[in-house]
Amino acid sequence: GPTRLARLPLARVKALVKADPDVSLASQEAIFVLARATELFVETIAKDAYVYAQQGKRKTLQRKDLDNAIEAIDEFAFLE
Amino acid sequence: MAERPEDLNLPNAVITRIIKEALPDGVNISKEARSAISRAASVFVLYATSCANNFAMKGKRKTLNAGDVLSAMEEMEFQQFVAPLKESLEVYRREQKGKKEARKDKDKKADSEEQDKSQEEENEDDDERMEEEEQNDEEEVDN
């Protein structure tokens, strides 16, 4: 549910945040919210890609399902 | 040797678990699809960070905070994330507060057991604890 704590390790998320040269400091809360947002993102993109697997009558999510979802959905444009 | 941002991976096991829990039972995911989602997740963090940092800079702040990340989600058109993120943040804050209270209570108990503790010593302990809390609250990114 939404109140479940982030399972992505905060240290790894922090490492990604550190990769941005424009960022100097980030609060622990910011790292937490980023981690949790990333989990939600993974859930969302998996579900959106699965629609294409279903159309292809497959029970295995494949790379092309991802590609289709990314191309079709505006919010995923940053991934192109 | 500096790592390229795209090489910073999130743990495969966690990514796979999140995917499996999001999909119906009996659905599998190919290794390539899992890999692609993992990479997309890393890019998501990088993009969200950049976006959030713009809000921090607009607010003339040097520290990226939770509010900046929430603003970034709206900007990135993931408004549907905001409500669940706020809920999670509430839980997180309660837990962090609980941890601090537990630490204070533990120290208080130790104080009451040591009757000879001088005033100077107590102040030093308070300063130490404040320093520790500061370190906990801000993850210095050191750029």
Automatic annotation (TrEMBL), chain A:
Domain of life: Eukaryota
InterPro entries: CBFA_NFYB_domain, Histone-fold, Transcr_DNA_Rep_Reg
GO molecular function annotations of the record: DNA binding; protein heterodimerization activity
Domain Transcription factor CBF/NF-Y/archaeal histone: 6-70
Keywords: DNA-binding, Nucleus
Known partners and oligomeric status: Component of the DNA polymerase epsilon complex consisting of four subunits: the catalytic subunit POLE and the accessory subunits POLE2, POLE3 and POLE4. Interaction with POLE3 is a prerequisite for further binding with POLE and POLE2.
Protein name: DNA polymerase epsilon subunit 4
Organism the protein comes from: Bucco capensis
Biological role: Accessory component of the DNA polymerase epsilon complex. Participates in DNA repair and in chromosomal DNA replication.
One GO term (biological process): DNA-templated DNA replication
Compartment list: Nucleus
Any Pfam family: CBFD_NFYB_HMF
Lineage: Eukaryota, Metazoa, Chordata, Craniata, Vertebrata
GO terms under cellular component: epsilon DNA polymerase complex
Main localisation: nucleus
UniProtKB/TrEMBL annotation, chain B:
The keyword Electron transport appears for this protein: no
GO MF terms, alphabetically ordered: chromatin DNA binding; protein heterodimerization activity
Transmembrane segments: none
Phosphoprotein found in the keyword field: yes
UniProt subcellular location: Nucleus
Pfam family, one: CBFD_NFYB_HMF
GO cellular component: CHRAC; epsilon DNA polymerase complex
Amino acid composition bias (Acidic residues), ranges on this chain: 121-143
Keywords: Acetylation, Coiled coil, DNA-binding, Nucleus, Phosphoprotein
Biased composition (Basic and acidic residues): 94-120
Domain Transcription factor CBF/NF-Y/archaeal histone: 9-73
Region annotated Disordered, chain positions: 94-143
GO BP term, example: DNA damage response
Subunit structure: Component of the DNA polymerase epsilon complex consisting of four subunits: the catalytic subunit POLE and the accessory subunits POLE2, POLE3 and POLE4. Interaction with POLE4 is a prerequisite for further binding with POLE and POLE2. Heterodimer with CHRAC1; binds to DNA. Component of the CHRAC ISWI chromatin remodeling complex at least composed of SMARCA5/SNF2H, BAZ1A/ACF1, CHRAC1 and POLE3; the complex preferentially binds DNA through the CHRAC1-POLE3 heterodimer and possesses ATP-dependent nucleosome-remodeling activity.
Function as written in the Swiss-Prot or TrEMBL entry: Accessory component of the DNA polymerase epsilon complex. Participates in DNA repair and in chromosomal DNA replication. Forms a complex with CHRAC1 and binds naked DNA, which is then incorporated into chromatin, aided by the nucleosome-remodeling activity of ISWI/SNF2H and ACF1. Does not enhance nucleosome sliding activity of the ACF-5 ISWI chromatin remodeling complex.
Protein name: DNA polymerase epsilon subunit 3
Lineage, top ranks: Eukaryota, Metazoa, Chordata, Craniata, Vertebrata
Gene name linked to the record: Pole3
